[in-house]
Design a protein that fits this description.
The protein is mostly helical. Helices cover 94% and strands 0% of the residues. One of its GO terms (biological process) is post-embryonic development.
């Protein structure tokens, strides 16, 4: 390789490593726009959550004599079904182990 070809090759390598200034500006503007949009959306979701919580709290207090026992009952039912399934699987495992 002679000197002119070496400089051309080195120049293309340097060009590939360094991005043009306009590309960097566009990249930064896009990132700032996307970040700002997400920040605004996050704030709106937070505000909506606070508003919905303020509306729902009195309803939860009014209906708590009904909801709390219902949740306890549902929790016990789910626990019972999971325990039953677990013991059934354990029994099948033990029976298959004994059979072998």
């Amino acid at each position: 390789m002679d000197q002119s070809q070496h400089q051309q090759h080195g120049g293309t390598m340097q060009h590939q490593q360094q991005q043009p200034r306009s590309y960097q500006v566009v990249k930064a503007a896009t990132a700032a726009t996307a970040g700002g949009s997400m920040l605004v959306l996050s704030g709106l979701i937070l505000a909506a959550t606070v508003i919905m919580l303020t509306i729902a709290t009195p309803l939860l207090v009014i209906f708590s004599p009904v909801l709390v026992p219902a949740l306890i009952t549902v929790g016990l039912l789910i626990t019972g079904f999971l325990a039953s399934g677990g013991f059934g699987i354990a029994a099948i495992t033990v029976l298959s182990w004994i059979y072998r």
